Recover the amino acids of this structure.
């Protein structure tokens, strides 16, 4: 009896395999189309497992495109700096899922327990939509890049930082194919590479100084002119740069501030100093700068790994008599 059941199951499996369409038995391979095949068990309602099969097929299609993108990616000039290698790879992994359009349903086949769906996307159709989106992004980025350069040259680093970040956000999905665009008739620039490089340059050029490295609490409270100052590498004061304060003595009612037009930031109010030295640290807040400039999590993570300049001042107990 067991032998009969085994033979019956074997014949059923053979018959089921023989009834499968060719695309399921042997995956289609050609240079004109990307192919995606999704197979899922028939669990839940028919609409649920049909939708899952469709999504599985599109994921499979995207993975095929992603494999090709990874193998043909243009060498990114800044990939070994600023954390851009990880950023570029992250974009390759997500861009295909976000930008799938123009695909077509080809066929569906069901067994007793599984459903299989087959979609395909023309290589030329994908390239057309990709190039269209890329050109639109580069055109928008060019306008922001030109504005950012002007702001940077006039020492408005805060606005330049924001615009360079917007440029990078616009072209991030096309870094693997190159983002070079003509700025003038005889000048071209890779906006992706250059925006990233200039973002990093601004973050490195910003410095924070104090008038003194130490002060008593009486000096600090009696003199209202004690400030930190934000400058660039040429000691040019820089406005509108956020700073974060950390103090070992007590809680700060104000732990953030922004430099004024003279690049100055007043000391925060400190609570009574105990009979020991405390340290007040002021750090340029790159984390806040990038979060104000973009909601893109990948760009945020990359810039947040950069270290903003900081300075420290020792606060000692003053003579209160």
């Amino acid at each position: 009896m067991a032998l009969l059941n085994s033979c019956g199951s074997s014949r059923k499996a053979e018959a089921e395999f023989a009834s499968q369409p060719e695309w399921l038995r042997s995956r289609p391979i050609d240079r004109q189309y990307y192919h995606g095949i999704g197979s899922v068990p028939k669990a839940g309602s028919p609409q649920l497992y049909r939708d899952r099969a469709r999504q599985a097929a599109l994921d499979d299609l995207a993975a095929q495109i992603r494999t090709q993108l990874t193998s043909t990616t243009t060498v990114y000039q800044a990939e070994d700096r600023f954390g851009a290698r990880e950023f570029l790879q992250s974009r390759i992994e997500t861009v295909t899922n976000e930008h799938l359009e123009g695909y077509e349903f080809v066929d569906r086949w069901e067994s007793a327990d599984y459903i299989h769906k087959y979609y395909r996307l023309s290589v030329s159709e994908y390239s057309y939509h990709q190039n269209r989106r890329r050109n639109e992004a580069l055109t928008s980025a060019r306008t922001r890049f030109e504005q950012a350069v002007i702001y940077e040259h006039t020492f408005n680093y805060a606005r330049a930082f924001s615009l360079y970040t917007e440029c990078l956000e616009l072209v991030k999905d096309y870094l693997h194919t190159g983002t070079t665009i003509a700025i003038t008739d005889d000048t071209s620039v890779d906006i992706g590479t250059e925006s990233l490089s200039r973002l990093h340059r601004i973050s490195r050029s910003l410095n924070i100084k104090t008038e003194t490295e130490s002060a008593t609490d009486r000096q600090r409270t009696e003199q209202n002119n004690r400030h930190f100052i934000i400058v660039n590498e040429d000691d040019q004061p820089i406005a509108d740069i956020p700073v974060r304060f950390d103090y070992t003595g007590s809680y700060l009612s104000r732990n953030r501030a922004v430099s004024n037009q003279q690049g100055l930031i007043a000391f925060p109010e400190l609570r009574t100093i105990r009979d020991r030295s405390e340290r007040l640290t002021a750090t340029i807040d790159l984390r806040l700068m990038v979060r104000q400039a973009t909601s893109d999590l990948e760009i945020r993570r990359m810039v947040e790994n950069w270290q903003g300049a900081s300075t420290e001042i020792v606060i000692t107990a003053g003579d209160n008599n």
Notes: The chain has ten helices and 13 strands. The longest strand covers residues 33-41. Residues 123-153 form the longest helix (31 residues).
